[in-house]
User: What shape does this take?
Amino acid sequence: SQKIEQNSEALNIQEGKTATLTCNYTNYSPAYLQWYRQDPGRGPVFLLLIRENEKEKRKERLKVTFDTTLKQSLFHITASQPADSATYLCALLSNSGYALNFGKGTSLLVTP
Amino acid sequence: DGGITQSPKYLFRKEGQNVTLSCEQNLNHDAMYWYRQDPGQGLRLIYYSQIVNDFQKGDIAEGYSVSREKKESFPLTVTSAQKNPTAFYLCASSIGTPNTGELFFGEGSRLTVL
Assistant: This one.
């Protein structure tokens, strides 16, 4: 069966450090992968999309890598800030080709 | 401002009652989606619609129904047949299929069955 796995344990880091979140998947052949941010009680907000032919993508302090051989994406936040504290979700296109499947998300807490 | 509006934000229901959650978008998006989120769980797809008057079941459609009579609106009815309806419900939209772009989400509706 298809699975999207993200670290279930919360990630606690100190302000200014780099946070690295992992997304592993099985039984997908994705042409792309998306990352979203979700704050408590709110809807997810899109952050980045990376395609299979893009090894790395950057947006401001965010960096995403995509390794289709390892079936893994890494999501980095450099110079992290307390405002970065949230749950981060990765998503892949479902078998239907018309909707996204999401991982359970990893909670990030950045402390001053 | 364009966006997706879900209402109500909080809803309480007695067992055996149907309830309808509203989702309206003014982004002129063709595709709309309903997801369910439980604590510690990922988003699970309930229904999706690519065009008006057409919709497809997602992974957990049992006990739910939808309609898509207008491009802007995609209401979700949680029926009494849904055995565990207490959850956070999220509506989303996209320009087309999400293979080139993002999903835009509403702020969610939290349903509690008493």
The CA atoms of residues 9 and 109 of chain B lie 4 Å apart. Chain B has a mean pLDDT of 93. Chain B touches chain A at residues 4, 31, 33, 35, 40-43, 45, 48, 50, 56, 58, 88, 90, 92, 97-99, 101-108, 110 (CB under 8 Å).
